[in-house]
Amino acid sequence: MDWFEVRQVNRDLWMIAEPGHVVSWLYLGSEFAALIDSGTGIAPIKPVVEALTNLPVKLINTHYHFDHIGGNAEFTERLAGEKAEALLLRHAPRDLLQRYIDGLLPLIAKADADRAADPDYMALTPELMLRPFPAGFDAKAWCPGGVAATGLLWEGDEIDLGDRKLRVIETPGHSPDGICLFDPAHGVLFVGDTLIEGPLYAHYDESSLADLALSVGKLARLETPVQAICSGHVARAIAEVSLIAETGQALQQVAQGAPYRMGRDIFGYGLRETRTGRVWVYHSDGKASSFPLHD
Questions:
Q1: Comparing 269 with 259, which gets the higher pLDDT?
Q2: Strand-pair category, 261-264 with 238-239
Q3: Interatomic CA distance for residues 74 and 55, integer angstroms
Q4: Chain-centroid distance, C-alpha 217
């Protein structure tokens, strides 16, 4: 079974998912292609991209977290928000990566059992179904990070793809360096981890619920209507525009002290979980569930 789930959304947009992990996006212009994030690095993503387009590729990182930058070294042009410059040079802690692998192994085993019991299980949403790690994957050698950006992006910058332009929007909160990318001419918004239908991670030691609320508010005030939201994770990678307002409302409720239940993330760290409709805000008391994502 291939590691990636690849799907053409329309003529110019491809979803490249690592099922159960992360989603990268390939957006085609007339002169250049933009690859929005490069995935975990568990398997090479460049051959997938090259099978989809002959255009020169501009890799753009929405933020520095290891599951979005693992394939950065495969590309010549690497763009990121200016606040990511130093963060991209760091590596995810070995303990954190091992926690990630350990947390996934029982879930992969369950997915294998579900497929064996029913080959059509979740057939309509294969990007949700975890897959076994690729043959030859060496978890101990897996070390995403440490690859510098070749260019930095600031608020309002435009990335020219020919007949399409992506505007940079600084959106800290999930991480301090977060950016979103918006094509106002076509209404396509790439949000990284700023908007997610399902678990919205804002419990890291570097996260800021207040900053995230401001960032979501900025997306709600875009002068050109958003037609489609392309997120970095699933439940659904392409979300309705209403997710912007719903996320803003969820963050407001958390700020006002909405009830929560205790839970754990994929790393096994504790967190507070407040569910508001289809947005689940994962937040922290700033103590027990706070931990670093880089060395």
A1: 259
A2: unpaired
A3: 15
A4: 19
Residue 205: pLDDT over 60: yes
pLDDT value, residue 164? 97
DSSP 134: P
Give the tokens for residue 19.
Answer: 């099922």
- Per residue in 142-192, pLDDT (tens digit) is 999 999 999 999 999 999 999 999 999 999 999 999 999 999 999 999 999
Rg (CA), the chain: 18
CA atoms within 13 A on the CB side of 36: 35
> Measured at the alpha carbon of residue 47, what is the angle toward residues 184 and 122, in degrees to the nearest 5?
75
User: Going along the chain, which residue ranges are E strands?
Assistant: 5-10, 13-18, 22-28, 33-36, 57-61, 77-81, 151-153, 158-160, 165-170, 179-183, 188-192, 198-201, 228-231, 238-239, 261-264, 270-276, 279-283
3-state secondary structure of 127: helix
> pLDDT per residue over 263-288, tens digit each?
999 998 889 999 999 999 999 987 75
Q: How far apart are CA 208 and CA 133, in angstroms?
A: 33
Amino acid at 223: E
Query: Domains in the chain and their CATH numbers?
Result: 5-90+143-283 (3.60.15.10)
The span from the CA of 271 to the CA of 273, in Å, is: 6
203 C-beta neighbours (distance < 10 Å), count: 25
Report percent pLDDT > 70 for the chain. Answer: 97
What is the predicted pLDDT for the residue at 122?
62
Three-state secondary structure call for residue 177: coil
